[in-house]
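Protein Record: Sequence and Backbone Structure Tokens
======================================================
Tokens: labelled as protein backbone structure tokens, with as many entries as the chain has residues.
Question of interest: how does this chain fold, as expressed in backbone structure tokens?

___
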Amino acid sequence: MATQFRKVIPLLNRVLVKRFDAPKKSAGGIYLPETRESELTSAQVMATGPGAFDEHGHFRETTVKAGQKVLLPPYGGSAVEVQQEKLYLYKDSEILAVLE
């Protein structure tokens, strides 16, 4: 049973992202199987936590900001449903790159 939330505010070095919808058809008009969704690894940052202290006691801010497009690892993240929308929480260090 999935619990729905109205708002999710990430803590520490967590990042809330929304994965981009996988295309249902290729450019040539061929319908793609749903297993392609697991290969989709780009997302938009919806919200970020303030950051966390590193092992030396220095505060490190989250490196990505809301609105940026990022590259994610193929697996991982914690799924959260917010107002009937599926979002994912990742640690800041798990994000592979910022896409421009």
